[in-house]
Task: structure prediction
Amino acid sequence: MIQSSCLRYSKPLFTVSTSHFPLQVILKFRKLFRTSTKGHGLDRLILLPSAIPTLTIDTPVPNIKQISYVKSGRLWVMPDFSDYYVDVAEITQVDNNGNVKEEVYSSGPFCVSKDDALLYKSDPSDVDEDEDEDEDEDEEYGDRIKKKTSLISITLLKTEESEDVVGIYSSFVNGHILVLIQIFTVTESHWQRHYSHKITRYDGNGLKIEDIWINDRIQGWRFLLYAYACITENKNGDIIISSDEYKTVVGMDRSGEHRFLYSHPENDYPRGICTDKYGHILVAFKSCIHLLDEDGAFQKILLKNMSSNIIFTCLCLDDKQNIYVGNNRGIVNVYKYLKDE
Result:
């Protein structure tokens, strides 16, 4: 239960008005909306007329890159690594008042599993207590994903030597772990590399189930050293990915077959994606949150940023389907957008 004493908003910074968009952009939205009305009648029954702010969390992280909710009412928050010009930073767990509860060093993306465990790309120097550090140095592998609970911290899985983890997602349906991987191959010139991408599906214990190759379906994907991608899975089994280095949200079915592409009418970069229990896809852009249906068709603008000094950087949902939106000022704002059942 969120206590009223936690509420710290006065004048709303964000609305769902479209009046600040140029006319040509509004017309593009209308065209997108007319292409698919599937589920729109249901949306009128389950969606609030506008998103309602319920909580503001002032975190100690100056520029938030990724957030993930924990059922206990806490939130894992990661800074933008590029701000520090390093490849390792702290993932910080905070409560609803922004108080720091725990910190973990990571070298990349993370997620929270169905059982509230933190899954994260670990710092290479972060070895398990029962692991022989010399043996680990002799073993050739790419990246390591660790699983951390209140009781344990173990290595869950390792990728091949040439594989870099750029996105992680843990399914709340079956507990499967989806890892978006970038693979590099050195060509004849040492300074030129060929990049390809795949999604590897693991079970909850880190055992590999399958590889889903996506380089034939998505052209131009390439992630910088400090960049990472977002990956999620919808209730119908679709896999959805995006990156702040690529202007399109990409949807594919569980076997990797292409389903849809979605781009902002003004070619803004998607900065975060998630799905709700109804199959909606929520996409964060720097100045707004878009709601799509499960086919990737635009439905409405859930939230509009009215401040030129604030940039939306990420989002997630909690177990009650409230939206948590992180920004470049280290603030996480929480909104209610669904009607009570």
